[in-house]
């Protein structure tokens, strides 16, 4: 359930990217679409940067025992 909101942002980012690709530069919404895409990509990047260290700390090699950090 925790991945659903992030998945929604990911899908919205892809839609914004496609919409921007098909919007002429002269259209008044083009700069707004660029801003929305940039904000969405920055948000996803910050989530990825935050999750990556947690995943690495949770990864256990075969044969090792991991104890929870309290």
From TrEMBL:
MF annotations from Gene Ontology: GTPase activator activity; guanyl-nucleotide exchange factor activity
Domain DH span(s) in chain numbering: 1-50
Transmembrane domains' residue ranges: none
One CC-aspect GO term: membrane
Domain of life (superkingdom): Eukaryota
Matching PANTHER family: BREAKPOINT CLUSTER REGION PROTEIN, BREAKPOINT CLUSTER REGION PROTEIN BCR
UniProt name for this protein: BCR protein
């Amino acid at each position: 359930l925790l991945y659903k909101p992030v998945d929604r942002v990911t899908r919205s980012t892809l839609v914004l990217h496609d919409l921007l690709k098909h919007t002429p530069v002269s259209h008044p919404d083009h700069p707004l679409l660029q801003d929305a895409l940039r904000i969405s990509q920055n948000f996803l990047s910050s989530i990825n940067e935050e999750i990556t260290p947690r995943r690495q700390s949770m990864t256990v090699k075969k044969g090792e025992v991991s104890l929870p950090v309290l």
